[in-house]
Amino acid sequence: MNTIITIGRQFGSGGREIGQKLAEHYGITCYDKELIAKVAKNSGFCEEMIHQQDERPTNSFLYNLVMDTYSFGYNASSFVDMPISQKVFLAQFDTIKKLAQEGPCVFIGRCADNALSDMSNVINLFIYADDDFRIREIMRRYPDITTEQKARDFMNKKDKQRASYYNYYSSKKWGNAPSYDACIDTTLLGIDGTVKLICQMIDDFENK
Length: 208
Description:
- Helices cover 59% and strands 12% of the residues.
- The protein is an alpha/beta fold.
- Helix 1 runs parallel beside helix 10 (186-207).
């Protein structure tokens, strides 16, 4: 196994669970919330600060400016003047690249596909599902969400947040098929069936 897997996902589609099952199957690490601790260790930012900025966009974000800063190295004065959200993004971007260089793993969200765009051993997936599937999943995972309408509102809020984050920090569009190597609807196969499908895809990818 030499493949790095990145997973974008609609909220409630099972993307995180799929990532965890893939990591377990291949005996590799899945980075979701675990990435926060790694970023904190590498950057010196406290975990609470990183969590507050995690997959949250900022209206003042200028993608090209920040990526130029990353590409040409941190300039002390420009880095100091950056909003904290941009500093956290750069620290996370850098950490994802370092972890990927250590070996195969799974990254959940956080524009990992964009961070690793220069690597050839990466397969980028987007997991989605229909609203009924996602609402049932959200109500199962969050017992305090007691009505379908509350689940739908939460789902729409989280999707909007993820889309905004991805669209700000990436040159691609969240959820659009051309942005990924494969988009998979978990409504059709369920969580375990989707995992089996992806495993076959990865095995074929490695043996091509």
